[in-house]
Inverse folding.
């Protein structure tokens, strides 16, 4: 299998959500809801706990308007991702650069997928740190276009 | 005592079955009873080898006669095999570094103790023979042969006592080397002695011829041993399983024994050469082989000594022969002690060697019996009085002295290493490992990484400290996972992520961990099984709480230091409970 950095394998267009939420908690809950619909996620509660526990350790707002909430769970056997495009930037995310967050990439992987998981986090952050990719996603007319941008560029 | 050979209990119309039954029954009885005897004697603090011999005496010709002459003869190939294995193991104790260091001392002591015993026993027995029969030639001939035989020391029982008492030190090294070498000296003296005795008694013989024979027998044995060692050396390079190398080694030893027997070479010297060359040319590869061979040799040792005891038949010995026996035993002892002292003193050997080495050279065994039997071929036509052959006198006399010396010799070997303070010092790494738990060698103050620590800080910890593994703990101090250098590899190049990833993101599950009270051996085996060098150690009661790190490199260093310390200090039993590092 190719590395999980090949985003088309872990992301589908249905998992790209346009978020109405204005606060971090609401946004994360909406994304948890979306991600728990994926067949890879067997336990919604575990996912929710894991995501919020990780946020307690340190915010996953990595700067430049991007957040990458992520978790490894025993019940997951394959990495899976969903994307939240915020209509209004979230001010209370607590990012490293203190800037509001507009794009959220929520990732869940299996406990034993250590290497794959880290490579995935690394490749997503590298990709969306390119301003043209970021802008293209944020200005995409629909989720299909956003999906295409995410999966075709440097995957 | 009534003698009832086992054959009399068997049907004789099925010869083959009877023979097999005899041999198997005797082997079974010998090993079982021998071990029981050894256990009993060990309780009395008497070396186990004495137990084997006493059992042999009880079941053999001097006792119940269960093993008679014919049966003992049937088992002769087995005795040769045992000699080969014993020789191989004794040779394995002779490391060249000891020889290089102590070569001059060994030679001086060897000549001192060998010639000391030769002259004292030779002179004494010649005098008694002269007073008994007033025949100078016969007296001189028997003196020379008795003297030559007296110079030999039994390596098998001596080394067995050294192993049993786990002795280690300069006296042990010297003792092993001397008992291994003095058979060659005994054979040389014997060759010269019998040649001279034949000339003196008017039989056809020449010293030159006898010396030639001895040189051929000894030189041929050494050459054969070297040749076999080369073959085994090549095989050991190709075979890595100790069980297979044991099978090959046994095969080669059997070939060596049969060739030695066929060419009339000295079996024990050939097998000693094989062991000695192998241990010095391939010390690492052969270590496992010697270890496994030692375990394999235990029943062989037992059988060898039980059969040796069984063969000792004293029969009806005249008074003057008992006098020779007594004088032989005392003269040989004094000769060995005094000769050793002189040789050791002249070469400025360690005081323990000067004082106690001679005591350890009393045991007499296979070589002496063997030489006395060979004497029956050389001296069969010489009669002391009509009907009494010199050869029979020598065989009976040597059998009686062997019995006394095999019963007292091992105890004196034990006394010698005890007096020298070397008993219990042969401690191996395995002994130290077995005496320790994980808590004794772990790093008790492991550096912990909090699960919320940014990876950038965790990487700094890796850079500024030695370990390659750190327990990651949550806010309650419970182990959430471990951070390893290997686990960090995937993000090492992505320095941007170091700021927003935390230790919890990059840690791995601590699949392999151990309790602090776990025996060290089990922990090492666990780590080897999964091929890791470091492992987190957890509290015995709360197995989520990390209390240390076990690092194999650190363990190795501590084991080496402890081994040196224990070998230099008190015996192993006292150290077993000492957990100091």
């Amino acid at each position: 299998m190719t590395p999980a950095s090949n985003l088309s394998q872990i992301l589908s267009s249905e998992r790209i959500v346009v978020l109405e939420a204005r606060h971090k908690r609401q946004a994360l809950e909406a994304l948890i809801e979306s991600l728990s619909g994926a067949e890879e996620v067997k336990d919604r509660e575990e996912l929710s706990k894991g995501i919020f526990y990780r946020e307690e350790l340190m915010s996953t707002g990595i700067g430049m308007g991007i957040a990458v909430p992520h978790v490894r769970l025993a019940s997951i056997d394959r990495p899976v991702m969903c994307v939240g495009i915020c209509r209004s930037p979230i001010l209370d995310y607590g990012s490293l650069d203190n800037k509001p967050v507009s794009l959220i990439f929520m990732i869940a992987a299996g406990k034993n997928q250590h290497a794959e998981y880290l490579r995935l986090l690394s490749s997503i952050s590298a990709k969306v740190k390119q301003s043209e990719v970021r802008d293209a996603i944020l200005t995409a007319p629909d989720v299909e276009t956003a999906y295409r941008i995410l999966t075709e560029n440097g995957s | 005592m009534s003698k009832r050979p086992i054959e009399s209990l068997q049907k004789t119309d099925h010869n083959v079955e009877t023979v097999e039954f005899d041999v198997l029954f005797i082997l079974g009885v010998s090993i079982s009873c021998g071990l029981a005897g050894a256990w009993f004697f060990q309780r009395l603090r008497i070396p186990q080898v004495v137990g084997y011999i006493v059992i042999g005496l009880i079941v053999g010709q001097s006792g119940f006669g269960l093993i008679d002459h014919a049966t003992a003869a049937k088992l002769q190939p087995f005795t040769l095999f045992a000699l080969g294995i014993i020789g191989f193991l004794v040779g394995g104790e002779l490391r060249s570094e000891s020889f290089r260091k102590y070569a001059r001392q060994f030679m001086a002591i060897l000549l001192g103790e060998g010639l000391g015993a030769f002259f004292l026993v030779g002179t004494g027995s010649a005098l008694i023979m002269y007073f008994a029969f007033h025949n100078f030639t016969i007296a001189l001939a028997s003196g020379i042969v008795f003297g030559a035989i007296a110079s030999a020391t039994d390596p098998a029982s001596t080394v067995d006592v050294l192993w049993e008492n786990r002795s280690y030190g300069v006296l042990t090294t010297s003792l092993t080397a001397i008992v291994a070498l003095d058979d060659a000296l005994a054979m040389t003296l014997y060759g010269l002695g019998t040649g001279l005795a034949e000339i003196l008694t008017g039989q056809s013989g020449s010293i030159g011829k006898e010396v030639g024979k001895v040189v051929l027998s000894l030189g041929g044995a050494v050459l054969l041993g070297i040749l076999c060692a080369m073959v085994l050396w090549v095989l050991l390079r190709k075979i890595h399983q100790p069980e297979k190398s044991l099978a090959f080694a046994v095969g080669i030893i059997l070939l060596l024994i049969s060739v030695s027997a066929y060419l009339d070479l000295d079996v024990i010297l050939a097998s000693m050469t094989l062991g000695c060359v192998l241990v010095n040319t391939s010390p690492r590869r052969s270590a496992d082989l010697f270890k496994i061979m030692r375990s394999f040799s235990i029943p062989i040792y037992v059988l060898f000594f039980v059969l040796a005891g069984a063969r000792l038949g004293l029969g009806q010995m005249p008074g003057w022969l008992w006098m020779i026996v007594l004088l032989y035993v005392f003269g040989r002892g004094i000769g060995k002690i005094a000769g050793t002292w002189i040789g050791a003193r002249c070469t400025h050997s360690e005081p323990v060697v000067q004082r106690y080495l001679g005591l350890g050279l009393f045991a007499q065994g296979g070589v002496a019996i063997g030489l006395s039997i060979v004497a029956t071929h050389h001296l069969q036509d010489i009669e002391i009085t009509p009907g009494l052959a010199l050869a029979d006198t020598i065989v009976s006399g040597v059998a009686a002295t062997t019995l006394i010396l095999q019963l007292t010799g091992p105890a004196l070997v034990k006394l010698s290493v005890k007096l020298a303070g070397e008993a219990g010092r042969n401690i191996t790494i395995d002994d130290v490992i077995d005496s320790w738990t994980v808590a004794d060698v772990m790093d008790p103050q492991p550096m912990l990484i909090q699960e919320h620590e940014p990876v950038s800080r965790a990487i700094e910890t890796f850079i500024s400290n030695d370990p390659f593994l750190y327990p990651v703990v949550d806010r309650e101090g419970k182990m959430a996972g471990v951070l390893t250098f290997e686990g960090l590899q995937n993000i090492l190049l992505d320095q941007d992520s170091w700021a927003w990833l935390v230790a919890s993101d990059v840690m791995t599950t601590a699949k392999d961990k151990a309790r602090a009270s776990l025996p060290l051996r089990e922990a090492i085996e666990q780590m080897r099984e999964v091929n890791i060098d470091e492992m987190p150690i957890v509290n015995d009661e709360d197995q989520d709480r990390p209390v240390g790190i076990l690092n194999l490199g650190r363990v190795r260093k501590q084991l080496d230091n402890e081994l040196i310390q224990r070998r230099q200090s008190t015996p192993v039993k006292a150290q077993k409970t000492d957990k100091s590092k």
About this structure: Strands of chain B lie at 383-385, 388-389, 449-450, 469-473, 479-484, 514-515, 534-538, 546-551.
